[in-house]
């Protein structure tokens, strides 16, 4: 492989949601990646993935997809018109063709088919559209680039909607082709998508484009990876809930992984491991203010500058009580954990008392009913839904007071570094 190091840029849906956003993206590539070997990973435009999920749902129930499909196409064509007013431009044909393929794909869906498998073959179109547009647009701006199909590089098993990466194969394929292509110019590819060894499409989980970029960065021993977002970097809270957020200039991989575990939606959780393994720094930067410092996530000692506030919505609190006036025993806990593991219910928080055991988990009514069916002979089970889980990492007295204000707390827990509470969603 060439000794010159490679950078990987990932642009999410918001950074390609309009013609103006594409223009801004091109400027960023020009100024911040221009003279560098650069691989660009792009997500679907705006809310396209949600729209495709909706279309898939309709097709699966044999409803009419024509209006939804027309709307999605119109959105893409409008951006296309603005970026490529010239009717003869090959990009128009390319998009026509892709939309035709999507239409066929939707038509073929039978209600009994394997939903998750069909999901991947359908919802993957968003990235195919956006990457084709980006490829042509950057070329027109004088940025020589190759468009590659990430399904031919990121190899996964057929665990649909959450493809598991075959690292050996993926690394071999990436290293075989990409260093050469990167000598010749930029390389553009799709986030979120992978492929199986029999040519089917897989996806890597919602918001998985960050992960795609990290996979490429890992395989190419990249110098750095940058995620361009609509926020100034990694913040200590979601600005939707907290008006006075602060940005972390530098933070460790470990701290970021923990924040993702507690539900911070900053970075797809699988993204960090490949980067941490090779100590590849991850920059989180704002595409609205590309000159801004952003955040560097790296192999450093994290100096706490502000507590992190993390909120998980749509939580459910389930408590299991013993029926015979004895205490909750290890045997009881074993039974409960077994059932949770079987049903793949993830515990976000748990607490034990003499006669009952409680867990806070993402609200999933079907799984909850199965859990109750499995355990109701042995336990008295109560549950509450429409709850919210707050986590304050690296808390202090002020941050706890702030969180507690105006809330009826259903459950509270603190360790040396982390404070958590469950309350009703309407208590804000
Ligand atoms: N387009 C996909 C999604 O919205 C992947 C991504 O954006 O990271 O989930
Ligand atoms: Mg997206």
TrEMBL record:
<dbReference type="InterPro" id="IPR036393">
    <property type="entry name" value="AceGlu_kinase-like_sf"/>
</dbReference>
<dbReference type="GO" id="GO:0005524">
    <property type="term" value="F:ATP binding"/>
</dbReference>
<keyword id="KW-0067">ATP-binding</keyword>
<comment type="similarity">
    <text>Belongs to the aspartokinase family.</text>
</comment>
<protein>
    <recommendedName>
        <fullName>Aspartokinase</fullName>
        <ecNumber>2.7.2.4</ecNumber>
    </recommendedName>
</protein>
<keyword id="KW-0418">Kinase</keyword>
<dbReference type="InterPro" id="IPR001048">
    <property type="entry name" value="Asp/Glu/Uridylate_kinase"/>
</dbReference>
<dbReference type="InterPro" id="IPR001341">
    <property type="entry name" value="Asp_kinase"/>
</dbReference>
<dbReference type="GO" id="GO:0004072">
    <property type="term" value="F:aspartate kinase activity"/>
</dbReference>
<dbReference type="InterPro" id="IPR042199">
    <property type="entry name" value="AsparK_Bifunc_asparK/hSer_DH"/>
</dbReference>
<keyword id="KW-0808">Transferase</keyword>
<dbReference type="GO" id="GO:0009089">
    <property type="term" value="P:lysine biosynthetic process via diaminopimelate"/>
</dbReference>
<keyword id="KW-0547">Nucleotide-binding</keyword>
<dbReference type="GO" id="GO:0009088">
    <property type="term" value="P:threonine biosynthetic process"/>
</dbReference>
<keyword id="KW-0028">Amino-acid biosynthesis</keyword>
<comment type="pathway">
    <text>Amino-acid biosynthesis; L-methionine biosynthesis via de novo pathway; L-homoserine from L-aspartate: step 1/3.</text>
</comment>
<comment type="pathway">
    <text>Amino-acid biosynthesis; L-threonine biosynthesis; L-threonine from L-aspartate: step 1/5.</text>
</comment>
<dbReference type="GO" id="GO:0005829">
    <property type="term" value="C:cytosol"/>
</dbReference>
<dbReference type="GO" id="GO:0009090">
    <property type="term" value="P:homoserine biosynthetic process"/>
</dbReference>
<dbReference type="Pfam" id="PF00696">
    <property type="entry name" value="AA_kinase"/>
</dbReference>
<feature type="domain" description="Aspartate/glutamate/uridylate kinase">
    <location>
        <begin position="6"/>
        <end position="286"/>
    </location>
</feature>
